[in-house]
Amino acid sequence: MSFYLPDSYGLLPPWLFMVSIVSAANSFQAYITTKFTARVYSPEAVNPLSSRTFGTWTLLSSIIRMYAAYNISDPLVYHLTLWTFVLALAHFLSEWLLFGTATMGRGLIGPMCVASGSLVWMLVQWEFYSMGGWTIRPAEDIGLE
């Protein structure tokens, strides 16, 4: 299994890989049933169309995150991936606090923790990954000369 994992330093790429796999699985189940989507949102707010729309949105985020797992030092990919977590967190917070279609509980706490934790992690590690922190660079490139 390890040959599928991203070949880079740090834990962020494998984390993005795992989050992407879980998100893709969540997307597929959203196409099949509304049961799990109704755990996040109030059952009266969930219908087959909203579940499939949520599944499509989640699958797109999953693809971007998987791409980042293998291309973590590409600044464009890093920024796009960061934005997937910003949008996810904003979405879940707004559905909970603004629209009232989600209640804090077992169904919402997981996605909120993943979105907020990943967002903070990516912000903290921004310079390391965007500057190719694991590569050896000439001294003049990092201001040592």
Describe this structure in words.
By secondary structure, the chain is mainly α. It has one domain (10-131). It is 66% helix and 0% strand. α1 packs antiparallel against α3, α3 packs antiparallel against α4 and α4 packs antiparallel against α5 (106-124).
Short description:
It contains 6 helices and no strands. With about 140 residues, the chain is mainly α.
State mean pLDDT (0 to 100 scale): 88
Instruction: Tell me the series of helices and strands, N- to C-terminal.
Output: HHHHHH
- Helix percent reads 55-70%
What is the number of helical segments per DSSP (H or I, 4+ residues)? 6
Helix/strand-derived category reads mainly alpha
What are the low-pLDDT stretches, counting only 5+ consecutive residues below 50?
133-139
The proportion of strand residues reads under 5%
How far the N terminus sits from the C terminus, by CA atoms, comes to 43 Å
The strand count comes to 0
Family: Belongs to the ERG28 family.
GO molecular function: protein-macromolecule adaptor activity
GO cellular component, one term: endoplasmic reticulum membrane
Transmembrane segments: 12-32, 76-99, 106-124
List keywords for this structure.
mainly alpha, 145 residues, 6 helices, 0% strand
Compile the SSE list and pairings.
Blueprint: H1 12-32, H2 37-40, H3 48-70, H4 75-98, H5 106-124, H6 126-130
